[in-house]
Specification:
The complex is a heterodimer of chains A (about 200) and B (about 240). Chain A has about 200 residues and is an alpha/beta fold. Chain A has ten helices and five strands; from the N terminus they run βαβαβαβαβαααααα. Chain B has nine helices and no strands. Classes of the chains: A alpha/beta (about 200), B mainly alpha (about 240).
């Protein structure tokens, strides 16, 4: 595999965490990783990050459906693999796309991972948070109160493209709600306050 | 954040507990327990203040470390007491947390009338409205329903068509705006000589977020399962 991917691993045991990372990294030196021991930390820091795959030990949810739901709704478009080292409630198995078991061979592990990497790999460098010119155009029109359809027409692009730009803007800035994006636009002189007066917040 | 190691037990001294983890003082307030606890154990204090010791200890432990949820069983916990605790928390958020933040945002805006500050104020007000709506739903629909179930159990009330499943599915996305607010204050609103105000607002937001997380856990992972069990039991006995 010579493409790049950004993978999130949530596992309390540092032995398992580091071991898994090494196995994957040795075959895929272009992959990048975020490694955490708890879901709380991930929800604090990485909610707006785009990952190509998530591997998580179900133990970190402590049986909390609340935490489980919050986690899955934050990472809707990614495949999540369970990292299983003991027996759990059936419910928790069913939520995962597939499972990795501690006694799986390296080959099996790598196969499962390759199988479930989301295909739409982000071209953007994930550390970059400067908006591209096009993204600024979209943000400006959005902050002025235009609908996605109006933005598409104004820039002669498809609605699909507008949606993608909107997602990327949110991901780069770490800001999700439209109202907050408008504030960002005003504070950074992307639009004039008078322009935004008509926008529905 | 300081964390106490180990599980909090009823024979521990209340004063020692609070001295090692001060954030738990707030929990006492929600159970109407007054400070000035001398050498009393947690159990003593609960008995004297007429507080359900099991519920108190469970919530205390949950606030101390959320992984307590997987360590102990919440079966048999008094539903009425849990709802009372949740109601008291709502009051705290509504009467203390939010007005405090609004005051500080207002100070920010007064000293610096830039348009983005005014928008920030409106943004927070909208967030507050969403939160108020959520609390209102619980206070006027979900909680009364649950309490009525307890009366059905006693045989003093007839059943309604509402089930706790509606409450369970009544999900909000309250965290999104909270996250955005933090980002705006920390990253995207350019410096304008208001760092002290920002610090006050941010600390309140982070504390509120932490508190709300445990609050939501009590609702989703303790209250709802307990009520579901009760509903099943009542269905069987029909």
């Amino acid at each position: 595999m010579n493409k790049t991917a950004h993978i999130l691993i949530i596992e309390p045991s540092s032995i398992i965490r580091e071991g898994l990372t090494t196995i994957i990294f040795q075959k895929n030196p272009t992959f990048t990783f975020v490694k955490e021991a708890s879901v709380k930390e991930v929800l604090k820091k990485e909610r707006a990050t785009i990952f190509n795959l998530i591997i998580v030990n179900p133990m970190v949810f402590n049986g909390s459906k609340n935490l489980w739901n919050r986690f899955f709704s934050s990472f809707k478009d990614v495949n999540v693999l369970g990292l299983i080292s003991s027996f759990y409630d059936r419910d928790f198995y069913n939520g995962f796309t597939a499972c990795l078991f501690l006694n799986d061979s390296n080959t099996d592990i790598l196969l499962e991972i390759e199988k479930h990497l989301t295909i739409k790999l982000e071209k953007k460098r994930l550390n970059e948070n400067t908006l591209s010119e096009r993204e600024i155009d979209v943000l400006r029109l959005l902050a002025q109160g235009n609908s996605q359809k109006e933005i598409a027409e104004g820039l002669f692009i498809s609605i699909h493209t507008v949606v993608t730009h909107r997602k990327n803007i949110s991901q780069k800035l770490g800001v999700k709600s439209t109202a907050a994006l408008v504030i960002y636009a005003v504070a950074n002189n992307i639009i004039d306050i008078n322009d935004s007066l008509n926008s529905s917040l | 954040m300081e964390r106490m190691n180990g599980i909090i037990k009823k024979n521990m001294k209340m004063s020692e507990l609070l001295l090692s983890k001060h954030s738990l003082i707030l929990i006492l307030e929600r159970f109407s327990i007054e400070l000035g606890v001398k050498e009393k154990t947690i159990e003593d204090v609960c008995k004297e203040s007429n507080v359900n010791t099991e519920v108190f200890l469970f919530i205390l432990n949950l606030h101390n470390d959320i992984s307590f949820l997987s360590m102990a069983s919440f079966e048999g916990l008094d539903i009425r007491e849990i709802i009372q605790y949740l109601r008291r928390s709502h009051v705290y958020y509504t009467l203390e947390v939010f007005p405090g933040i609004i005051d500080n945002i207002h100070s920010m805006t007064t000293s610096n009338q830039r348009p983005e500050n005014l928008m920030l104020e409106r943004f927070f007000e909208e967030y507050k409205m969403e939160v108020d709506e959520h609390f209102s739903y619980e206070n006027t629909i979900a909680f009364p329903y649950i309490l009525s179930l307890l009366d059905v159990e006693k045989g003093t009330q007839k059943k309604t068509n509402y089930t706790v499943r509606e409450y369970k599915e009544h999900h909000d996305n309250l965290e999104e705006k909270l996250d955005d607010l933090k980002r705006l204050l920390i990253q995207y609103l350019p410096p304008q000589n208001d760092s002290i105000m920002r610090r006050k607002i941010l600390i309140s937001l982070f504390e509120f977020e932490q508190d709300l997380m445990v609050h939501a856990m009590i609702e989703d992972d303790i209250l709802v399962p307990l009520v579901e069990k009760l509903e099943k039991k009542l269905l069987r006995s029909e």
